[in-house]
Amino acid sequence: VAFIWSFLMLSxxxxxxxxxxxxxxxxxxxxxxxxxLVLPNRSSWANVSFDNAVGLQMTSGSSVTTxxxxxxxxxxxxxxxxxxxxIIYKLVQSNVYATKRDIYYNDTQLFGxxxxxxxxxxxxxxxxxxxxxxxxxxATSKGFISGDLCYLExxxxxxxxxxxxxxxxxxxxxxxxxxIVSSAKFVLIVEKDATFQKLLDDDFCxxxxxxxMITGKGVPDVNSRLMVRxxxxxxxxxxxxxxxxxxxxxxxxxxxxxxSVAMSFEAHSLxxxxxxxxxxxPSDLQRLRVPEDALIPLTQRDQNKLTSLLKRPYLACQPAxxxxxxxxxxxxxxxxxxxxxxxxxxxxxxxxxxxxxRYGGWI
Length: 363
Hints:
Its cofactor is Mg(2+). By secondary structure, this protein is an alpha/beta fold. It has helices at residues 2-30, 75-94, 100-106, 108-111, 114-128, 193-201, 204-207, 222-235, 247-258, 267-270, 282-287, 300-310, 319-331, 347-359; strands spanning 36-40, 48-51, 55-58, 64-68, 98-99, 137-138, 144-147, 150-152, 158-160, 168-169, 178-181, 187-190, 212-215, 239-242, 276-279, 296-297, 333-334.
């Protein structure tokens, strides 16, 4: 009864927040003034502060973006926000959930693209200061998970991730997951789907010790990040990251660990500050004598990204990461995880990862 009452109160709070926005619009119209929506700016580094225990989080006095109804450059966005607000209001009122894809197909001509809906939902979540799940909007997951893990979905469907041949899609409703059961010793975040599948084929999750592998297939979606956070909160086991030894792999790892500017308003539920860099380290390339023809010269774009990363506020508390990035900067080369196959086809799962995990080769 207490849970139901709490749920109803939270739903009522969301409805009141939306009604407040609409009332302000109606009030402006009654005064013959053009309605305006004020959104926190989700793309500016000036709007975030860094906390070692949380990651990147939006500051209370953040700069804003004004969406005007009487301005040709923003009137379309104004209309999009009102349309999505009306859909969210009905969802919350009816206690029904929808995906961002469902919202897009509600009026494809109005929205024009899925990306428009994705951005608007995040803008509304940030404007109302309400997590997206409380808006009853779910995202379709692109990530996969496998290993020593069982849990129940919100509708009581049992999910077993033990299969060695196929991975389980990450839930689109991570917040509703309960009854997590696992004897995993660690979680391994794998940057790329190809590497994830290779480790799955090699039966990595059971050969060394029971573990859980998860991939966001590149830049992680919110559900993959929520799932890593859920596992950390529930299981209290080490979280390792396996990414390419290049600036973009490092940035992906930083998103899991410290978050992103665009989603800094939800940092407390998305970041996992305990994530450790297992590999592929730039210093590993020399130490393992990875063949030169498997190394790739840094492009100017890579060098710019690396310079940008080294200026990030969280690098100051990660001197070991900083040293690795400086090695990359000096050697002017990068390498994909797959480059280890040039040493031996199964080197990654048979030698590299077991040795790293046994002897503490992470930073």
